[in-house]
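Reading a protein record of the kind used here takes only a little practice. The record below shows the convention in full:
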Amino acid sequence: MLFPRILLFLFVALAGLAPAAEPAPPDPAPAAELKISVQAAPGGTAARALTNFPDGSALVAFRGRTVDGARDIQVADWRDGRWSEPRMLAPEGWVTDSPPAAPPALDSRDGQAAAAWFTAADNDPRIELATSPDAGGVWLVPQRISEGKPEASVSLALLRDGSQVVCWKENEKLLLRRVSPQGDLGPVAQAAESRTPVDTLQLTVLADRDDAAPVRLLLAYETSGRAFTTVVTLPPLKELAAKDSVCSCGRASAQAQRGVALHGTIISVDAAAGTLLVKHDHIAGVMAAMTMPLKADAATLKALQPGQEFLGRMDDRDAEWWLFDVRLLGEPVVEKK
């Protein structure tokens, strides 16, 4: 009986040395519910361009088809979870059975929007550009950007000062042209060469926050199944603004075009903090009507007082909104308590 007891003792001892089984991992937490809202976008199967705004709205541009067969550029807004009815951006009356596959180009900055597109209306192939100061609500009269006979692909970048840079292909060359905030056309410059048709074309701003530093853009394009990129460098915004002010023939200065326009009333002035408490109207594409503090320079703070109604512009500088270019509307209105 001794031998079985020894075996039992060894079995118990060895069992004590065996590693304990690891506890089973807890059940994974259930994944968050994925909510998907499916809704048809305006334009049907047309190629389209899309851009968004800080207030959560968006804008789509596409080549539509009117009842008389015209393939003109249309736009629609995304607000409150739905698309608006499409509306005409530029009624050119271009009737064609096979519209270009390339979509219009669209870009936005704060509440400003810009669109560029190819058209061959009146048997005159060209690139056109239009801008909107209120997130696509109203569009200014389009400008002709190209000088020769361009192909259909076009791209666009909107700079912080409100100017636009348009890129398109023409005569085996990728060309660039800057349009000032006042609408003055700059010279046409070559950015790259491509002897084959361009399938895609995209222009993106890399750096334009420092007024004294060169503006840098990234141009990306695809041709014959190969993708290419090139960096485009422009003079600093400060230098460009100086040139714009010379050729703008008495129009508003480049500085007056920066930021976004607003209409509001001064609630209070805090000179020590360098801020104004302002009640402003809805700013299309940027923010709803509200009361908010704005930074301002010493001269602006000194010139303003509570109760004054004004028109002005505000600019986002290092995550703070600054008020400038103020125009007073009448005398201050002091609320009676």
User: Anything to note?
Assistant: The longest helix spans residues 2-17.
